[in-house]
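Hi there,

I know you've been waiting on this one. I reran it after we fixed the sequence typo, so this is the corrected version. Both the input and the resulting structure follow.
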Amino acid sequence: MSELSELIPGLPEEIALECLTRLHYSSHPVAARVCWRWRNLLLSKDFYNHRKQSGHTHKAACFIQSLPVQFASSECKSMTPTYGVSLVDPVNGTWERVEPVPQYPDGLPLFCKITSSEGMLVLMGGWDPVNYEPLSHVFLYDFTTRKWKQAKDMPDTRSFFALGEINGQVIIAGGHDENKNALNTAWVYDVTQNQWTELPKMSQERDECEGLVIGSQFCVVSGYKTESQGQFEGSAELIEIGVTQWRKVENAWKENRCPKSCIGVDKDGKFLIWSGSERVVKAGVCGVHSSEWTMVSGSEYQGGPQEFYMIEGQNGKWKRLEVQEGFSGLVQSGCSVEI
């Protein structure tokens, strides 16, 4: 790999930068091999922020989705589904599969969580797909290098926790430990520094809760205590980074069921649910929200075929998407990413 004194020989630096800014993210792995200067630029946080501010990032939905049998190795072709990460552009109708995590080539940890930060995917937790032991691993996926790297493990092992991201800070809260004890603890992970910091404890334990970001606040919705397993709370708790106490909101969740992946926020900042008798999807629902659209997956009935819909703007019409072959598997969770 060579080193160039100019970004693009013969062009002023500002014009050369704008040319590179307009490259589609899928061309970044090839462009990064042109020279060290291009590679360093494409991998830098400043370049990502420049693309974001100039409107040249790419918004997509990522789903933890069950894989077709042919994608699994012969050793893993059992009754237990295997999962991978699907990347979907609901506007252009493109579907692709993200490379497997090297440590788990035959399928992701079961019930792992995923979010995005600074244009990267952040995948954490779950159960080992072979022995079902809970995991504390954290992996980051860079779309420029098209590679996963292992980050610093979660400070403890927890399952079915709430997850969200605010300005490069990934927050986890609640869930349960290895002994099925519900948790009220929370941590924040700094993606750039690769460091975990403990947050104040919530007012109560919350297993199988759901995380939402509302403006600058992280919200943990519902969940249940150890002694009341399966009896989902109606309350929620909110916190801002740097604040020393959670704020509890009573009667925030009135569905009396698990809020996992099926809850969103409307234009007035109120909770809404993506499934139900008045919706086109009623079972196995997962909603992924970006600033421009919401993508919802699910079935009309339990065990039915998986369908995908895009909702443009706030409270817009539901548009059914054409699903490419190999991408109709069950969705476990998801997130949006600005690449």
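Quick highlight: The chain has two domains: 13-53, 59-338.

Best,
R. S.
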